[in-house]
Amino acid sequence: MIRRLAQLDPNVLRLVLVAVPAMVALAGWGQILRPAWQARQTAVALHASTRQAVADLPARRAESAALSKEAEALEHLLEAPDSASTRLPLLLERLATAHGVEMLPVFPGRDTEFEGLLETVYEIEASAPYPRLVAWLADIDAHLANAGISDARFSRLAATESTSLKLRLAVYRRPATPPTLPVEGRKQDDKPAAPLIRHDPFRRPAGSANAAESGQPAPPAAWQPTLRGVLLAGKASLANVDGQMVALGETLEGHRLVSVSDHQAVFEKDGRRMVLDMRRPMEPRP
Questions:
Q1: How do strand 264-269 and strand 255-261 relate by DSSP bridges?
Q2: Measured between alpha carbons, how far is 234 from 250 in angstroms, rounded to an integer?
Q3: E strand or H helix that includes residue 285
């Protein structure tokens, strides 16, 4: 073997001596050195990002605390008692009186879901000199941080120096928790609840006087309910009929409540529907 190598051309022998170590070096770089170098670079980058994250931790904690305080402030604004539908008209009237603004009675409109919040729209009509109206609106904005003016129209009254204003005020609150309906079951230790009175015990049935005179049994009195109010809460909506709260699906005097809408409640019995409206007398429908 040595003799054969000695017989080779010196240039070829020199080339072989240079090529073999180069091939060994390339194979070692590809198989051993390069993966080790890449692993080291990855570890260095991970260490640097970890140190940066640790250094940014106080700033992130401060930002998180600020966001938490802001969220608590927003929650407080959404639960402001002055924005409740029972107190908002009184607040608007009090502010109007303070600024010398004449305002018509205000009633809450229909509640709608908007971006996960409950939106209540109020249609407001008022009149006063223009500077007083502007001051009144600024005072409303200062007292109701969870409200916004969606529409405002000013018109000058020709006979006087006053300005008429038609305002649409939108108030945003957290969705109310659906009212808890009575549970049929109860614990053994609970005292039995008093039975619900489904009718007025002091109301005289129709035709009772004539029946007493003739000796005939009195016919059943016709159901003549009065709708006093409605509470729109989806499947948990309620209707106030003669002072008694009735939920969807419940029956009153044999009439089942099937739907509740603005100013109306629809009852059904024996295939006939009766629409109770706070603004009109009852209307039976087939």
A1: antiparallel
A2: 15
A3: strand 283-285
Residue 155: which domain range? Answer: 81-173
> Rounded to an integer, what distance in angstroms lies between the CA atom of residue 197 and that of residue 244?
9
**167 beta partners:** 124, 152
Q: Is 17 helix (H, G, I), strand (E, B) or coil?
A: helix
Taking 70 as the pLDDT cut, the residues of the chain under it are 1-9, 12-13, 16, 29, 70-80, 82-83, 114-115, 176-221, 280-286
Of 173, 204, 235, the one marking the end of a domain is 173
pLDDT tens per residue, range 100-142? 999 998 887 777 886 678 788 889 999 898 888 889 899 888 8
Q: Give 268's strand partners.
A: 256, 273
Round to whole Å and give the CA distance between 275 and 257. 10
Task: State how many domains the chain has.
Answer: 3
Angle between helices 130-143 and 88-98 in degrees, nearest 10: 140
Phi and psi for 163 in degrees, rounded to 5? -120, 135
The answer to whether residues 133 and 96 touch, using CB atoms and an 8 Å cutoff, is no
**60 part of a folded domain:** no
**Count of C-beta atoms within a 10 Å radius of residue 189:** 5
CA atoms of 90 and 135, how far apart (whole Å): 18
Q: What pLDDT, on a 0 to 100 scale, did the predictor assign at position 73?
A: 62
